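During the reporting period the student researcher (J.K.) took over the structure-prediction task from the postdoctoral fellow and processed the backlog of single-chain submissions. One of the processed entries is reproduced below for the supervisory committee.
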Amino acid sequence: ASQILNGSNLTLLSGDDSLTLPLLSLGGSGVVSVAGNIVPQDVLAMLAAWREGNRAEAQKRHHKLFPLCRDMLGLATNPIPLKAAMQLLGQDTGEVRLPLTPLASGDIDKLRGTLTKYGLL
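J.K. obtained the following structure tokens:
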């Protein structure tokens, strides 16, 4: 990322929530966030802390978000776990379309545990 940005006027956005803060530290500009659909206030707080120069607060927010991102998005290809999480949180987003398939029941239990640990359920 730093080689790409060095001497260029490109805008580099993170497409992986768990890598947003590391990418910002290399000169990235922001994120196309999946977690922001579930915990927008937490993603925004991390980005705001970074932009305000409060690196310690941004890191604290990143460490809070990281397990959610890792454990939720590691279950299946996105948007499968995101749609399942939104469903568990009472937001009907409809079913995933082929070739994607719904999240397996065992993974739904894992996802429920992840959301509970985060304080969302």
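The committee noted the following: The two ends are 36 Å apart (CA to CA).
J.K. will present the remaining backlog at the next meeting.
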